[in-house]
């Protein structure tokens, strides 16, 4: 093994929060909550196992019932949700960790078979693919176009969810405006066909994301709030249009608000939009790289390229999923466990969740095959 001593392991800081390293655990939906969205004791174990991350950003949690995307995802709009999350944050804090919670509304990425409600969106444009529900994959439904009152209520729901998250023990929250969910749907020209003040021009399309973020910051303090974007991301049928204009405009509107960070998903240091966003954003940027493979060398190579391009922190998803001791492995140059995708979502239970081995406790290859039905991790 080759020991690494890169800037990844240097201490870092967010407003009011010291971090022991620049390594951030990215939010990853894992579908291990109860059916009503309440986090489970198994989730507390999972996150506590990964408490050595410089910061954990917990998986997307919905601010209201309409925003639910898939079965068994977390929520943060009831006392039961807050109590479940408190068990998680207590376990992570006891293990020496720090957590933010990502707030996400699915918009058109939802289904009545899951939530009991018709999903809402900026315009009545359905998801162009099937969606997973408790009844299996189902055709997407046409979402209901949000009224002005729906928009005001949803903004208020995000602010209340942020207050709930702080009450549940999180150090802060991340507003999710990426990956084809509601806020991203307002940004994109193919999902936002509105002709009012929230659609049409770039200035109008960034308005909803900006208003949600500003309301959350007003509720809990800007230094407790991050924003996630993923410029050019086409997941969930998104076609942004004007990507190179959207994100500099959004950064210009929010850059002076004193937010904790801007989290750039699928970050590519060689793109013009990343360079423009970095140049314009006055604070901390968390960058989430696209990895060619899950290996120590690939993680170091991608991370160092982003740090050299101006990123302050590096967010990793699947490497943390499969390696509870990822920070130690990267520091030592040790091999990484590979994610067992069969257990990533929709299956529940400990398999592929809390059973990944740490250094010094590696199971035999035979036992890993038994865990994953023939695939060696």
Element layout with pairings:
Elements: E1 12-14, E2 17-19, E3 23-25, H1 41-49, E4 55-62, E5 74-75, H2 79-94, E6 99-103, H3 112-115, E7 120-121, E8 131-133, E9 136-138, E10 144-145, H4 148-167, E11 172-177, H5 182-187, H6 202-205, H7 207-220, E12 225-229, H8 243-254, E13 261-267, H9 272-280, E14 285-289, H10 296-308, E15 313-316, H11 318-322, H12 326-332, H13 365-371
Parallel strand pairs: 3-4, 3-15, 4-5, 4-6, 6-11, 7-10, 11-12, 12-13, 13-14, 14-15
Antiparallel strand pairs: 1-2, 8-9
Structure description:
It is a single chain. With about 375 residues, the chain is α/β, with parallel strands linked by helices. It contains 13 helices and 15 strands. The strands form 4 sheets. Strands 3-4-6-11-12-13-14-15 form an 8-stranded parallel β-barrel, surrounded by 4 helices. Strands 1-2 form a two-stranded antiparallel sheet. The chain has a two-stranded parallel sheet with strand order 7-10. Strand 12, helix 8 (about 245-255) and strand 13 form a beta-alpha-beta unit. It is globular.
Note the total helix count: 13
Compressed to H and E, one letter per element, the order equals EEEHEEHEHEEEEHEHHHEHEHEHEHHH
Q: Spatial order of the strands in the main sheet?
A: 3-4-6-11-12-13-14-15
Which whole number gives the mean pLDDT? 94
User: In whole angstroms, how far apart are the ends?
Assistant: 19 Å
Major β-sheet annotation: 8 strands, parallel, barrel
| Rg over CA atoms | 20 Å
SSE class: alpha/beta
Residues in helix, %: 25-40%
């Amino acid at each position: 093994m080759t020991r690494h001593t890169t800037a990844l392991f240097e201490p870092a800081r967010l407003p009011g929060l010291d971090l022991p390293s620049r390594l951030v655990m990215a939010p990853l939906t894992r579908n291990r909550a109860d059916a009503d969205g309440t986090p489970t004791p198994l989730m507390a174990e999972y996150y506590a196992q990964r408490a050595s991350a410089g910061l954990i950003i917990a998986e997307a949690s919905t601010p209201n019932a309409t925003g639910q995307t898939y079965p068994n995802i977390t929520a943060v709009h009831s006392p039961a949700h807050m109590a479940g999350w408190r068990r998680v944050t207590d376990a992570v804090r006891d293990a020496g960790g720090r957590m933010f919670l990502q707030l996400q509304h699915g918009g058109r990425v939802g289904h009545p078979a899951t939530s009991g409600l018709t999903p809402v969106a900026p315009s009545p444009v359905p998801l162009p693919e099937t969606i997973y529900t408790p009844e299996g994959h189902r055709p997407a439904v046409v979402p209901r176009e949000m009224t002005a009152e729906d928009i005001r209520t949803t903004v208020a729901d995000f602010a209340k969810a942020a207050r709930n998250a702080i009450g549940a023990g999180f150090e802060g929250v991340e507003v999710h405006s990426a990956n084809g969910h509601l806020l991203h749907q307002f940004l994109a020209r193919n999902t936002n066909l509105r002709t009012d003040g929230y659609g049409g021009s770039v200035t109008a399309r960034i308005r909803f994301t900006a208003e949600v973020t500003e309301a959350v910051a007003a509720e809990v303090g800007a230094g407790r709030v991050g924003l996630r974007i993923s410029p050019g991301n086409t997941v969930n049928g998104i076609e942004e249009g004007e990507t190179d204009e959207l994100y500099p405009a959004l950064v210009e509107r929010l850059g002076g608000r004193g937010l904790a960070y801007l989290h750039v998903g699928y970050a590519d240091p060689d793109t013009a939009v990343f360079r423009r966003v970095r140049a314009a954003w006055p604070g901390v940027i968390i960058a989430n790289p696209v990895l060619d493979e899950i290996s120590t060398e690939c993680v170091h190579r991608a991370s160092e390229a982003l740090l050299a391009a101006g990123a302050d922190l590096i967010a990793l998803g699947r490497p943390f999923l499969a390696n509870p001791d990822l920070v130690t492995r990267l520091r030592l140059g040790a091999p990484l466990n590979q994610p067992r995708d069969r257990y990533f979502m929709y299956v529940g239970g400990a398999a592929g969740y809390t059973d990944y081995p740490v250094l010094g406790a590696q199971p035999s290859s035979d036992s890993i095959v038994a865990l994953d039905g023939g695939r060696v991790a």
